[in-house]
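Journal club prep, notes for RB
We'll compare a predicted complex against what the paper describes. Inputs for the nickel (II) ion case:
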Amino acid sequence: MEDKINKLIEKIKSHFENDFSGHDWDHIIRVLNNAKYIQSKEGGNLEIVILGALLHDISDHKMNGGILNHGGVIAKEILVELNYSVEIIDQVVALVDNISFKGALVEDKKISLEQQIVQDADRLDAIGAIGIARTFAFGGNKNRPIYQASVEPTLHDTFEDYAVSKSHTINHFYEKLLLLKDRFNTETGKELAKERHQVMEAFLNQFFKEIELK
Ligand code: ADP
Ligand code: NI
């Protein structure tokens, strides 16, 4: 397993090296480490979890020019080239296509244990101190304002609307990040999310305190 994983890493690493939107190689490695940790507590197929974590952002709509649900297609091409079995490829493709956040009012699908683990691992990296840093990096990378008091958050009810929304960065906390704590799948994920959620709440309280100083 190790050898093939190293070949995969060699193949995909450069894809993430010029990303400055918070979806860089370090994000992939943190998700991989989170996912391995959760798998060690919750079980599930380790190989699928590792492959899924490494490939989960391989063609995300936020960085590929807006094409939705394209990650699975690219993941499949890469795994076919590396001679993975159809059984493994099918599971990883489903994982890559299923785990992304689709909107505040879009219900998360029923997903396999491996998908739940990688989704939790990815969501952990979206919240807490790292989540705050990534979110402002994303906003800056997409030329969005930090905050505009006049623009209220929108709770999107379709993935299409969520994907094209271009609101200020503080809104992203209300449209996604603060909602995640109730949308973790595994007990391990839920537990790890608690402190990270509190860090975001404390950050936002302080942010508004400083803005509203009279
Ligand atoms: P998902 O697959 O659930 O979308 P990703 O791993 O692709 O998760 O990362 C999403 C991260 O990108 C968010 O947690 C946030 O840091 C950043 N991001 C995405 N959309 C926005 C946005 N509209 N404003 C600010 N940051 C965003
Ligand atoms: Ni991700």
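Talking point for the session: The chain has one domain: 2-211.
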